[in-house]
Amino acid sequence: PCVSQVVPINIDRLDAHTNVICDRVRLTSDQAISIFNQRETKTKHTAALLSAKYGISPKAIRDIWTRRSWVTETRLYWTLLEQQSFDTGQALTCQEGKAN
């Protein structure tokens, strides 16, 4: 005989369009902004700590910091130099990116 097992489902992991459980974690805009704002006080361990907290990779954290993802949501928090370099398509050096 077949035995059914009831497994609790975390509804946060359900894809809104397909109702299929998804292993991919999706951040909210507020979470992405919070991560972006923490780049000012980051240490060599910050990306790893934030990745554990939010369930995403350290690379995803760094992509938020370097404006490769969540651009629209974090743009209000960029420095003037960051905005200008993005608009002109020029990359910033580490030192330029820290300028306000």
Sum this structure up briefly.
With 100 residues, the protein is mostly helical. The protein has helices spanning 29-37, 46-54, 58-65, 71-74, 80-88, 94-98.
General description of the model:
- The protein has six helices and no strands.
- It is globular and about 35 Å long.
- About 45% of the residues lie in helices and about 0% in strands.
Features:
100 residues; mainly alpha; 6 helices; 44% helix; 0% strand; globular
Question: What does the secondary structure layout of this molecule look like, with pairings?
Answer:
Elements (H helix, E strand, L loop, with lengths): L28 H9 L8 H9 L3 H8 L5 H4 L5 H9 L5 H5 L2
Helix pairs in contact: 2-3
What gross morphology would you assign? Answer: globular
Counting copies of identical and different chains, the oligomeric state is single chain
Q: How is the biggest beta sheet arranged?
A: none
Radius of gyration (CA) equals 18 Å
SSE arrangement, N to C? HHHHHH
Number of separate strands:
0
| Low-pLDDT segments | 7-12
Helical stretch count? Answer: 6
